[in-house]
Specification:
The complex is a heterodimer of chains A (163) and B (163). Helices cover 36% and strands 28% of the residues of chain A. In chain A, strands 3-4-2-5 form a 4-stranded antiparallel beta sheet, with helices on one face. Chain A contains 5 helices and 5 strands, in the order H-H-H-E-E-H-E-E-H-E. Chain A folds into 2 domains: 4-48; 67-144, 2-Layer Sandwich (Alpha-Beta Plaits). In chain A, helix 2 (23-31) packs across helix 3. Chain A is of the alpha+beta class. With 163 residues, chain B is α+β, with helices and mostly antiparallel strands. Chain B folds into 2 domains: 19-63, no CATH class; 75-149, Alpha-Beta Plaits (2-Layer Sandwich). Chain B is 34% helix and 23% strand. Chain B has a 4-stranded antiparallel beta sheet. In chain B, helix 2 (38-46) crosses helix 3 (50-63). Classes of the chains: A alpha+beta (163), B alpha+beta (163). Chains A and B meet through helix 1, helix 2, helix 3, strand 1 and helix 4 of A and helix 2, helix 3, strand 1, strand 2 and helix 4 of B. Strand 5 (137-151) of chain A pairs antiparallel with strand 3 of chain B.
């Protein structure tokens, strides 16, 4: 659970760090605490995994990775965990998850995100995944993204301490 | 709260990125210093002055090359949930529904994909119940079914594409 200071710190940084010479001092001033406390807590959050990293979040499309394919696979339940590990280890796969099917509309239980400069590149990557899954995959699809509708990252709701 | 990145059109032509910008994105992927003057410290390692680092980051944010610069929170480490959800939105209602969905602060990102499941978004919430409640609200606002695809198992996460 988040304590009150963590919430304040997330609220103050979720849109980004202040781009000033002393960003942690600026945050501390905004929150009315000592700058050392800000830096120590950020360090603590990194250590706990509550912050995955501090740095630049690129827009991959603008960097030329315009083909973004969510590959989805209907994989034998008995083998999906073992095979998911192998798919996740492929260097071009950025995210790989087992998720529930929503039958009959959605038969897929393994999601692997791949990125390429072209759709042909994505298709070659999907083919590698297919070879790896072989007969354990009954069917699959590639869902290409065609527009970013929103990309803000986490935003804690409002100013109230809720949920 | 204003999102730094405007929804980008992915068919935008990719202009070759400035090599110093590319180096900055690459080197500032993570491990941003928690020192008093972190931009100066980061710049020293790259042979760039503090104000140049700040100016370049600001320009890349303004240009949409970066969507954010700061901490990436993994709210699941504090009892929260990132929930992937999808909808099958009739084409003629797509923009209206996108606006309704995006109006929720909890929607961390939202992508249009080429499929009958044409809208895919991620909710970042402080609890699984809160995420479910947002799905319910979106269903009642849009009259459309929201398919929730919670992670059952994570095989790999963290994308680092060569810049």
């Amino acid at each position: 659970m988040l304590n009150a200071f963590d919430r304040q710190l997330i609220h103050a940084t979720q849109a980004g760090l202040p781009l000033v010479s002393r960003p942690y001092d600026a945050l501390a001033q905004q929150l009315g605490v000592d700058a050392v406390l800000v830096r120590e807590r950020l360090q603590g959050m990194l250590h706990e995994g509550l912050i995955r990293r501090i740095g630049a979040v690129p827009n991959h499309y603008r960097l030329g990775y315009s083909a973004n394919g969510m590959t989805v696979w209907d994989v034998d339940d008995a083998r999906v965990d073992e095979l998911g590990e192998k798919v996740g280890a492929l260097d071009f796969v950025s995210h790989c998850y087992r998720r529930p099917r929503a039958l009959p509309d959605w038969p897929y239980n393994l999601f692997a995100m791949v990125h390429g400069h072209t759709r042909a590149e994505v298709e070659r990557q999907a083919l590698q995944i297919h070879c790896l899954l072989a007969e354990a995959s009954r069917r699959h699809e590639i869902l290409y993204s065609s527009r970013i509708l929103k990309k803000t990252g986490l935003r804690l709701p409002g100013t109230t301490d809720g949920q | 709260m204003k999102a730094r990145a405007t929804p980008s059109d992915m068919v935008m032509t990719h202009n070759s990125i400035d090599p110093v910008d590319a180096m900055l994105i690459h080197r500032l992927h993570g491990d941003f210093p928690l020192s008093e003057q972190p931009f100066r410290e980061a710049g020293e390692q790259l042979g760039l002055a503090e104000d140049e680092v700040i100016a370049r980051l600001q320009r890349m944010l303004d240009d949409g090359l970066l969507t954010r610069f700061g901490p990436l929170f993994q709210i699941e480490r504090a009892g929260g949930q990132f929930l992937l959800a999808a909808m099958q939105v009739p084409e003629e209602r797509f923009d209206v529904v996108a606006a309704l969905v995006n109006a929720h602060d909890e929607v961390a990102h939202n992508y249009r994909r080429e499929h009958t499941f044409n809208m895919w978004f991620v909710l970042g919430c402080t609890s699984a119940d809160a995420a479910r409640a947002v799905c319910d609200r979106i269903e009642s606002e849009t009259g459309l079914k929201v398919y929730a695809f919670p992670k059952e198992k994570e095989f790999f996460v963290e994308l680092r594409l060569p810049v």
